[in-house]
Structure formats: C-alpha cells, structure tokens
Amino acid sequence: MAEIRIRNTGERISGEEKVKAFLENQGVLYEHWDAGKLPENLRNKFVLSDEEKKEILNVFDSEIRDLASRRGYLTWDVIALSDATPNLDELLKKFEQVHTHTEDEVRAIAAGNGIFIIKGSEDVGYFDVELTAGDVISVPEEKPHFFTLMEDRQIVAVRLFIETEGWIAHPFEDPEFKK
Ligand SMILES: [Fe+2]
C-alpha cells in the first residue's frame, strides 16, 4: 500500500484512506488493484519476455479497461526495470529530474516498488509517494514530478497513455526543489 513522505517536514502518511485523501487533495489519482491476481511465477520477475508482458496485461485486463474507459487512455504497455536493465544508473539519472508532461502519467505497479516525487500545493511542497504492488497512480498533466526506484531497485508497471507523444518530458527548473 502506498505511503506518503512530505519532504519539508518528514511527516509520513499511511493507510489507504488517508493516503487517498491526501493525494486527492493534491489532484493526484490513487487507486488499488489486487496484485495477488498475478501468477506466482511473475510476482518476483523483473526481466520479462514479450509473452510475459502480454500475460500481465491479460491478468489486469478488466482493471485496465475500466480505468481506460473512465479516463480516456487508448494504449497501454508493461515496463520492467531492475539491475539487469542495461544502463540502469544512467536511466535513473535521467529520470531523477523534475519535469512535466502534457498528459497525465499513469502507473499501475504489478511488482516491486517505485517512488513518485511530486510538487504539491504551496503549503505542502514536494512529497514522495512510495508505491508497492497493486498501487495505481496518475500524476496530472503539467504537475512537476519525477520517478525513481526504491532500495530494491526493481519494478514492473503497467503504463497507460492517451497518445504516446503526450508523454514527452519537459524539464522544470525549480529552485524550490532540494534533493
Ligand atoms: Fe514523468
């Protein structure tokens, strides 16, 4: 289940209802899928064949189609990252820069962990959303954010798009952001 950490105060928020309410307040969609639907052989696998990616999409087909029909997504795929990913450190360096997109960034975590760092309202500032299997998040369009892995450095996530070009990252230089 997702947890929030507010960077300025170190305050943590946990528990589905509180996390959901906090994120809703910040304009961030948060939902939860049953990650237990994933077959056991895929729960701890971070290097995936095309067949295995298709299998993951099939397992969550009804959840994906429900979300897509409510929010207008037209395409989806599966991304897997781990130490087996070539140039993972370089990739993470590229990821770890505050940016925006012209469409929202949707991720449903199938396995592993990840963090979205998001610029919240003025009184909150930047906050981390730590995600685990089953968590579904949508960072709104034009909201400054970035994504990185957690200590386990592995994740499998479903991504949904309205159109793939809408997902290009636009750097957001922010003197208020402190690493
Ligand atoms: Fe992004």
Automatic annotation (TrEMBL):
<protein>
    <recommendedName>
        <fullName>Acireductone dioxygenase</fullName>
        <ecNumber>1.13.11.54</ecNumber>
        <ecNumber>1.13.11.53</ecNumber>
    </recommendedName>
</protein>
<feature type="binding site">
    <location>
        <position position="101"/>
    </location>
    <ligand>
        <name>Ni(2+)</name>
    </ligand>
</feature>
<dbReference type="InterPro" id="IPR023956">
    <property type="entry name" value="ARD_bac"/>
</dbReference>
<keyword id="KW-0408">Iron</keyword>
<keyword id="KW-0486">Methionine biosynthesis</keyword>
<keyword id="KW-0479">Metal-binding</keyword>
<keyword id="KW-0028">Amino-acid biosynthesis</keyword>
<feature type="site" description="May play a role in transmitting local conformational changes">
    <location>
        <position position="104"/>
    </location>
</feature>
<dbReference type="Pfam" id="PF03079">
    <property type="entry name" value="ARD"/>
</dbReference>
<feature type="binding site">
    <location>
        <position position="99"/>
    </location>
    <ligand>
        <name>Ni(2+)</name>
    </ligand>
</feature>
<dbReference type="InterPro" id="IPR011051">
    <property type="entry name" value="RmlC_Cupin_sf"/>
</dbReference>
<comment type="subunit">
    <text>Monomer.</text>
</comment>
<dbReference type="InterPro" id="IPR014710">
    <property type="entry name" value="RmlC-like_jellyroll"/>
</dbReference>
<feature type="binding site">
    <location>
        <position position="101"/>
    </location>
    <ligand>
        <name>Fe(2+)</name>
    </ligand>
</feature>
<dbReference type="GO" id="GO:0051213">
    <property type="term" value="F:dioxygenase activity"/>
</dbReference>
<comment type="similarity">
    <text>Belongs to the acireductone dioxygenase (ARD) family.</text>
</comment>
<feature type="binding site">
    <location>
        <position position="105"/>
    </location>
    <ligand>
        <name>Ni(2+)</name>
    </ligand>
</feature>
<feature type="binding site">
    <location>
        <position position="145"/>
    </location>
    <ligand>
        <name>Ni(2+)</name>
    </ligand>
</feature>
<comment type="pathway">
    <text>Amino-acid biosynthesis; L-methionine biosynthesis via salvage pathway; L-methionine from S-methyl-5-thio-alpha-D-ribose 1-phosphate: step 5/6.</text>
</comment>
<keyword id="KW-0223">Dioxygenase</keyword>
<keyword id="KW-0533">Nickel</keyword>
<feature type="binding site">
    <location>
        <position position="99"/>
    </location>
    <ligand>
        <name>Fe(2+)</name>
    </ligand>
</feature>
<feature type="binding site">
    <location>
        <position position="145"/>
    </location>
    <ligand>
        <name>Fe(2+)</name>
    </ligand>
</feature>
<keyword id="KW-0560">Oxidoreductase</keyword>
<dbReference type="InterPro" id="IPR004313">
    <property type="entry name" value="ARD"/>
</dbReference>
<comment type="function">
    <text>Catalyzes 2 different reactions between oxygene and the acireductone 1,2-dihydroxy-3-keto-5-methylthiopentene (DHK-MTPene) depending upon the metal bound in the active site. Fe-containing acireductone dioxygenase (Fe-ARD) produces formate and 2-keto-4-methylthiobutyrate (KMTB), the alpha-ketoacid precursor of methionine in the methionine recycle pathway. Ni-containing acireductone dioxygenase (Ni-ARD) produces methylthiopropionate, carbon monoxide and formate, and does not lie on the methionine recycle pathway.</text>
</comment>
<feature type="binding site">
    <location>
        <position position="105"/>
    </location>
    <ligand>
        <name>Fe(2+)</name>
    </ligand>
</feature>
<feature type="site" description="Important to generate the dianion">
    <location>
        <position position="107"/>
    </location>
</feature>
